[in-house]
């Protein structure tokens, strides 16, 4: 079972790279056009780009669902340890990014981060409500 979990986690780590290679990817999420040159060479139509984005969105959701299914099988202590390690890593990266910025950029970065965290909290609350509603049906 641990091998399957590790495979799922490794797969999870690779999805963002594929998503960033999609046409138009990265524009709204992190800015820029990371890796989209791969699809630019295919000269895709608007419809093909739309369909590719839809497929990648579905793949990312499926990836999340599969990963979550395996993570839910981990013992609580290991799940908590992993969450704590991920949180610490995220905080360290956030600090390093912030340290690279000028004071006025730091202020803007902090505002953006606060908004993003509020959206995450709102989404988590919605997901919790949805799960509770679905379990009653």
From TrEMBL:
Residues 75-137 are annotated as: Disordered. It holds the Pfam family LTXXQ. It is found in: Periplasm. One of its GO terms (cellular component) is outer membrane-bounded periplasmic space. One of its GO terms (molecular function) is unfolded protein binding. Residues 1-21 form the signal peptide. Keywords: Periplasm, Signal. InterPro entries: Cpx_auxiliary_protein, LTXXQ. Belongs to the CpxP/Spy family. This is Putative periplasmic inhibitor/zinc-resistance associated protein. It comes from Pseudomonas saudiphocaensis. The lineage of its organism: Bacteria, Pseudomonadati, Pseudomonadota, Gammaproteobacteria, Pseudomonadales.
